[in-house]
Amino acid sequence: MLYRIKLKNADDFVLLDDQVFENLSNDPYLKEIQFLDNLRRHSSGCAVFQKTWKRANNAGYKTETIYLHKIIAERFLKDQKMGTNNLVGAKNGNKLDCRLENLAYRSRSVASRKRKTSSVAGYTGVYRENNRYRAVISINRKSVHIGMFGTPEEAAIAYNKKSRELYGENGKINIIKPKSKKELEANNKQ
Fold this sequence. Notes:
The protein has 6 helices and 10 strands; from the N terminus they run ββααβββαββαβββαα. The protein has helices at residues 18-26, 28-32, 68-76, 108-114, 152-167, 181-189; strands at residues 2-6, 13-17, 39-41, 47-54, 61-67, 87-90, 103-106, 126-129, 132-139, 142-149. The strands form 4 sheets. A 3-stranded antiparallel beta sheet has the order 3-4-5. A 3-stranded antiparallel beta sheet has the order 8-9-10, covered by helices on one side. The chain has a two-stranded antiparallel sheet with strand order 1-2.
């Protein structure tokens, strides 16, 4: 069975397996702080519980932060945590999909490759140079030229091919955006 938990600050839902839901629901501390009822969408896109508590003797405040994907991995996937694989990520890229089959420990380099792009062209490894698009990929911390292309989509496809070749399933794959009607009409006029 699959559980959908509504987030407090967004119209989104977190997805949980039944065994995870039961475990979190029956944990005495998590029940006391109403963990599942107070999940919010963090600025990073994942689900988080965050609460500020007043310390005893008026000694200020303490903020408690519990990331949902991390607590699930610590409880159910600890056998996967080894060596440099110590960060938890979503295999399908959806940080709110916290089903066990979607969570995995990965290394910092894999997590970096999976991160959303900040490229102006809209694709990882694709940069505009004059009227063309350069595709580059990082290999052992060095930027390697893949080629020059007429469109950002062509460059992104070349990047994807090289990423699969080098990194397999741990490589970043750009999702190629379908062209709008306006873009298609402009291309047909050329």
